[in-house]
Amino acid sequence: MDNQTAIARAQAHYARCIDDGPLDDWPLFFTEDCHYRITTADNYSRGLPAGVIWADTRGMLRDRVSALQEANIYEPHVYRHMLGLPAVLSESGGDVRSETPFVVMRVTGGGPTDVFATGRYVDRYHLADGRALLRERVVVCDSKEIDTLLALPL
Amino acid sequence: MDRLSGTVVGRAPDRSWPQSLSRVPYWVFQDEEVYRAEQDRIFHGPTWSYLCLEAELAEPGDFCATFIGEQPVLVTRDVDGEIYAFENRCAHRGALIAMADHGSAREFTCVYHAWTYNLQGDLTAVAFAEGVQGRGGMPAGFCMNDHGPRKLRIAVVHGLVFGTLSNDLPDIEEYLGEQILDRIDRVLGGRTPVVLGRFTQRLPNNWKLYAENVRDSYHASILHLFFTTFGINRLSQRGGIIVDRSGGHHVSYSAIDRTAVADSEYSQQNIRSESEYRLADPSILEGFSEVGDDVTLQILSVYPGFVLQQIQNSVAVRQILPRGTDDTVLNWTYLGFESDTEEQRLVRMKQSNLVGPAGYVSMEDGGIGGFVQRGIAGASDEYATLQMGGETAESSESRVTEASVRGFWQAYRASMGFVADDAAPLHEIGEHERSRITREGHA
């Protein structure tokens, strides 16, 4: 299996995990030592480092999930991720950089289907034994605006 | 009843405003006429609005596109090193002078007909002013000095740039008062902020519901479970509320209480603050003393729409911008400081998870205003009750109070001319005393 196929496969399961569950598995798409952040194209192009979500360990991703399940209060909502094909930008052994465009629709409560976010994943994958794990995922949202709140990860 | 001047169209329904500061009528979050009047009387009136950070205008030519209420504004640093601000509106036909949010420019040229402005907002050139081949062109009497966007008064407080379109208000120091100034100084004084990121949150509610929420120290440890569970903020911590004399500005703060024992009040209140929730990676809570004291939380607001926040080592400014009766823009700017060590910067990154649109202790605030906006539909003549901690808007050592929320309404009523008028005939007397109000415009 080539790297692009391995990444596409991992991402299909990633999207399914967030959209259809179980969300508890979401951190397992990352290496133990990882970087995940959600930012905007504006911040990204200016090199501003903060994120609306910022994590540098899988433990912090687990804490996101448990906070959503145990602590935070928000109106129930679901996402539907539509991912484009990953563009592999560089490959060096098991270290692969790729970018993937996404559209995420959100349905909050009994409301309509809204376009919640569009953007791209700027990724660095670790590939071993045909399995792709995220070392780094920067979620670069095209818009700087987030409607109401961001609870579930992108 | 006096009618509002300016933008008012048609006759407004009769309004009554309860005399007490502890009652807020719901129509104030719904009424289109009130919303229009706020633009004139508050945002264009005698208030100082936060515009941007001085750090965002580091070099001559740097500019920020920002807002006072709905009004687009450009803030610049000219080659003389001074900061200027003027409307982002071409004096010709009203188009935006600059479209980028941030950038650097030598001058601004309107894209529509190439009218050009210098960095102080003076009109310096009009395309084809002399016409072409002796035909057309501007009339001989046209004077560029008579045309230009309105200029703002500017004040800079510890790197925060404030502006106003009104000449009818005191200097920023007097506007804020010593206590508020001291608390801004505590976080920003003597340090150069660095922008770490900017995020915009679109809130489906009236701007005043967010202004209330920021001033509401009562909700923090009840709605935001993350705080209480990890001892970041409990109402029993050492702390207090400062409300300035106008009521409009406030500070809520808390500090590590080194003498504290496990308190039983929480477990008796049937609130979700005693869960067994534990973090897999508790490094998010490993901070440092922000300015060398024990204060771990300081939320400061400046009327009408500014917030300076220190939550642990997450420092940010927030700008509240009205966009409609049920639509608000909330701009977050996350800050570090030039003096930060690498470790301190890492702490700020981790703790950025606490705040913003996805913040562990702020996510709920994104939704709660919308819950109120939806909840009060059909209840325009009902009102909210703000009796926690009494009926006044005074500073207190207890944070179990709505004093600073009442303070906001005290300042708001003064700005808007909503005065309980005892001379006017009383409106329908319900089970609670209400009085007829008049709306007195400002000169």
Present the secondary structure layout.
The complex is a heterodimer of chains A (154) and B (443).
Chain A: H1 3-20, E1 30-40, H2 41-46, E2 53-55, H3 58-71, E3 77-83, E4 87-92, E5 95-108, E6 113-128, E7 131-141, E8 145-147
Parallel strand pairs in A: 1-7
Antiparallel strand pairs in A: 1-2, 3-5, 4-5, 5-6, 6-7
Chain B: E1 16-17, E2 23-25, H1 32-43, E3 49-53, E4 62-68, E5 71-77, E6 83-87, E7 102-104, E8 108-109, E9 116-117, E10 123-125, E11 153-157, E12 160-164, H2 172-176, H3 178-188, E13 193-203, H4 207-214, H5 220-223, H6 225-229, E14 238-243, E15 250-255, H7 265-268, E16 295-302, E17 306-311, E18 314-324, E19 327-337, H8 342-351, H9 363-375, E20 383-385, H10 403-416, E21 418-420, E22 435-439
Can you put this structure into words, describing what you see?
The complex is a heterodimer of chains A (154) and B (443). Chain A is an alpha+beta fold. Chain A has a single domain, classed as Nuclear Transport Factor 2, Chain: A (Roll). In chain A, strands 1, 2, 3, 4, 5, 6 and 7 form a seven-stranded mixed beta sheet that branches. By secondary structure, chain B is an alpha+beta fold. Helix content of chain B is 19%, strand content 27%. Chain B has ten helices and 22 strands. A seven-stranded antiparallel beta sheet of chain B has the order 13-19-18-17-16-15-14, sandwiched between helices. A four-stranded antiparallel beta sheet of chain B has the order 6-5-4-7, with no helix packed on it. In chain B, strand 18 and strand 19 form a beta hairpin. The longest helix of chain B has 14 residues.
